[in-house]
Amino acid sequence: MKPDDLHKEITPEKLYFSRRKFLALVGTVGLSAALVACGITTTPDTGTASTGSLVTDTPVPDILTPLDTITHYNNFYEFSTDKGSVADLAVNYKTEPWTLEIAGLVEHPGKISVSDLMKTYPAEERIYRLRCVEGWSMVIPWNGFALHKLLSDVGVKDSAKYVKFTGPDDPANLPGQNSAFYTWPYTEGLRLDEANHDLTILATGLYGKILPPQDGAPIRLVVPWKYGFKSIKSIVKIELVADQPPTFWNLLAPDEYGFYSNVNPNVPHPRWSQATERRIGELKRRQTYIFNGYGEQVAYLYDGMDLVKNY
Ligand code: MTE
Asked: Whose CA is nearest to atom 23 of ligand 1?
């Protein structure tokens, strides 16, 4: 099936349904946009929302972001910090064959090729909003499978409380890894119950096509209620651990990027507001919703937790 055909198959009903869900989840969010200058570690997309006049005040439908945009506006620091150049730099990156290691507190540790993994766990389509911590967002039709299926098959031991994900360590082929400013390889982590949530997927494709290198081929995490940087690309290792693992962005700037990093318009980044976002392709900014609009499904994971402290 060609990606365009797949796009046509996404019926208005489906979009309508996702909008309904979206509307049902939202609360009233103030637009107290405290806007700041760009930082060294990320370039925030904060716009000029201080009066609210440039912000869409009524929720609008989620329309799929075009494939060309999804594949040419990328954060993938192993290649570059320049979003527009990642696709070109990654074009020859070899992602096949690729081995994923499952390690740590599991009954069946080992290595599996991603092609075997894709046969074992047939891909389903998941259309998710992706909200970057920098203040932009997209809607992406991923193909992949729920991480909990893999975790259940490898047999997670009772002592495991977190899942640690590691990206490639390959400075010869990943030019960005020659920068000593960052702690390579890229690492991420989830609490075990977050990893086991059905919304959490390992993606191997988008728009019905195999993932291109710039979007994290051959296998990446997608956690739609968290800022995009939690969705680590090109995973080489998944490790079940007892303690909260260190993560790439938290190591770099612990005051700015917490372990949880749930999308939260009420907790500004220290250098910019998170109240609004720019949907790539739109002029007006949109409100940002708690848990990126997936609160109905995931809020219970954080019952009793202070979401300001646990940012
Ligand atoms: N994964 C790795 N390995 N390296 C990265 O630099 N960037 C993250 C995340 N995963 C990143 C990564 C960030 S900041 C975002 S917003 C998303 O990937 C962007 O995904 P996309 O380029 O497919 O939209």
From this structure: 215
